[in-house]
Write a structure and sequence with these properties.
Blueprint: E1 2-5, E2 17-31, E3 35-49, E4 60-72, E5 77-89, E6 97-110, E7 113-125, E8 131-141, E9 144-147, E10 150-165, E11 171-188, E12 193-206, E13 221-233
Antiparallel strand pairs: 1-2, 1-13, 2-3, 3-4, 4-5, 5-6, 6-7, 7-8, 8-10, 9-10, 10-11, 11-12, 12-13
Length: 235
C-alpha cells in the first residue's frame, strides 16, 4: 500500500496536487529454479486538488489484474515481464479500460549489482474499446544492494510515443520529447516487511497545449516532480 502525491506550488496558476491511495495483493503461482510466475490484484483511489475557484480535475477508482514472471536463461541473464489490465470506475475522462505491459532482459553483474533494460507499452480505451491513449517508452534500471537490508534502484525512462485520440480516432495530442529520471529506495525491516520510497523528475514538451493549463510557455512544456512512500508485506 502506498500514498503518492505530486507537489503543489501555490505560486503557479497551473499547479495541482494528485493523491493516490493504492492497495496491492500478490499471489505466487510458480516458483522453480528457472522460472517464477505471480498474479497481482490492485485497488486504487485517486483524487486531484486544485486552487479554489479552479476547475476540478478527474478522480477515479481503479481495479486491476497483473500476471508477472521471470525466466532465467543462466546465472547472468533473465527475461522479465508483467502485463496489467485495469478497469476504471467513476472516471471523469474518456478512458474506461487500460492494458499496459513492460518486458525486457536483466543482466546480473554480481549479487549486489544488476542492470535491467525494458520496453513499456500502455493502451487505453473508452467504454466502446476505441483507443483514446497510446504510449511507449524504453526504460533502464540499475538495482544496487548497498547492505543486506538496503537497496537503491536508479532508473531512467525515454518517451518514444504518447498520443491522445478523440472518439473519432483523431489525433488530438502527442509528445515531442520527454524523459524521467528517478530512484527507488527500499529498506527491509524484517524478512516480510519492507519500507520504500521513490523520487523522480520528469520534463516533457508537447505538440499542443494541454487542457486546464497543465502545460506552460510558448513551447508547451510540462514538468512533474514525483514522490512516493509505501509499505510492502509478504506472507
Amino acid at each position: 500500500m502506498f500514498k503518492e502525491s505530486w507537489p503543489y506550488f501555490t505560486t503557479s496558476r497551473d499547479s495541482y496536487i494528485r493523491n493516490r491511495t493504492q492497495i496491492d495483493a500478490i499471489k505466487k503461482m510458480i516458483n522453480t529454479p528457472t522460472s517464477d510466475l505471480e498474479l497481482g490484484f490492485r485497488y486504487r483511489k485517486e483524487s486531484n486538488d486544485v486552487e479554489p475557484n479552479t476547475k476540478a480535475r478527474s478522480s477515479n477508482r481503479l481495479y486491476g489484474l497483473t500476471p508477472a514472471g521471470e525466466y532465467r536463461f543462466n546465472d547472468d541473464w533473465s527475461f522479465n515481464f508483467w502485463l496489467s489490465y485495469f478497469y476504471y470506475s467513476n472516471y471523469f475522462n474518456d478512458s474506461s479500460h487500460e492494458a499496459e505491459t513492460e518486458f525486457g532482459v536483466t543482466y546480473k553483474y554480481s549479487d549486489a549489482l544488476k542492470a535491467k533494460f525494458t520496453v513499456y507499452i500502455d493502451n487505453q480505451w473508452d467504454k466502446h474499446f476505441s483507443t483514446r491513449f497510446l504510449q511507449s517508452q524504453v526504460r533502464a534500471y540499475l538495482p544496487i544492494t548497498i547492505k543486506p537490508n538496503w537497496k537503491i534502484t536508479p532508473y531512467a525512462r525515454y518517451f518514444l510515443q504518447e498520443n491522445t485520440y478523440d472518439k473519432n480516432n483523431y489525433l488530438t495530442q502527442e509528445i515531442k520529447n520527454g524523459f524521467r529520471i528517478g530512484s527507488l529506495v527500499e529498506y527491509q525491516v524484517t524478512p516480510s516487511l519492507t519500507l520504500w520510497s521513490e523520487f523522480a523528475y520528469e520534463p516533457s514538451t508537447w505538440k499542443s497545449p494541454k487542457k486546464n493549463g497543465i502545460t506552460s510557455g510558448y513551447d508547451n512544456k510540462q514538468t512533474l516532480y514525483l514522490s512516493k512512500i509505501g509499505v510492502k508485506y509478504q506472507w
